[in-house]
């Protein structure tokens, strides 16, 4: 979660049973960093970090987590107009997974052609993700959301799987509902042969977590239910 999930936040949550945490999303190039500043001005939480300093910050943050929990995977979620900054950051030894953000729907990011805008041009998405998969020094994840108008999420998932993504992080957002769109999880799951599917959205208790897994997700991620730096259920009971 932009502006929120740093090392200190992750360290609060790991004791609840998390085996992976995500730092970011970070804006990894000058264009997305400028967009981030605009979002901050209108009141949205964002990490305000100069792109030139970002690799050092990520190294420091990930090492802080690894110091206490060496067995917990550290993923880094990144927005970038081109693949190059993502590939560069993947060289950091203390991170385990590099995640392409095809999820952000803020207008300042969409206007740059990244974030959720990557889903609108599958040829460009394929080119972008393929370059990261081929050149990254770490396993690759892509995060995107369900029910984006004009986007076939099953087609996107199949494409990412064929490219060779290691993880597909799927936000099963259901517009106007206070629950995940489990039918979309089933559709995406049926399109994936090899990638590990992480299901996200409205997981706030054991029941919702189990429902996500029953719908075809291989694992779950928790966002809003953890905003307070804790969760109210035992992950080990899922």
Supply the key terms.
single chain; 238 residues; TIM Barrel; 7-stranded parallel sheet
Structural class: alpha/beta
Annotated CATH topology? TIM Barrel
The CATH architecture comes to Alpha-Beta Barrel
Q: Report strand order across the widest sheet.
A: 1-2-3-4-5-6-7
CATH superfamily (homologous) name: Aldolase class I
Overall residue-averaged pLDDT value = 97
Number of helices: 9
Q: How many individual domains?
A: 1
Largest sheet: 7 strands, parallel
**DSSP strand tally:** 7
Helices and strands, in N-to-C order? HEHHEHEHHEHEHEHE
Radius of gyration: 17 Å
Q: Are there runs of 5+ residues with pLDDT below 50, and where?
A: none
Protein name: TIM-barrel protein
InterPro entries: Aldolase_TIM, DUS-like_FMN-bd, tRNA_dU_NifR3-rel
Domain DUS-like FMN-binding: 66-228
Q: How would you describe the overall organization of this protein?
A:
With 238 residues, the chain is an alpha/beta fold. It has helices at residues 7-13, 30-41, 54-68, 84-89, 107-110, 122-135, 153-163, 182-191, 206-214, and strands spanning 20-27, 73-79, 97-101, 140-145, 167-171, 196-200, 219-221. The chain has 9 helices and 7 strands, in the order αβααβαβααβαβαβαβ. It has a 7-stranded parallel sheet. The two termini are 23 Å apart. Residues 66-228 form the DUS-like FMN-binding domain. Pfam families: Dus.
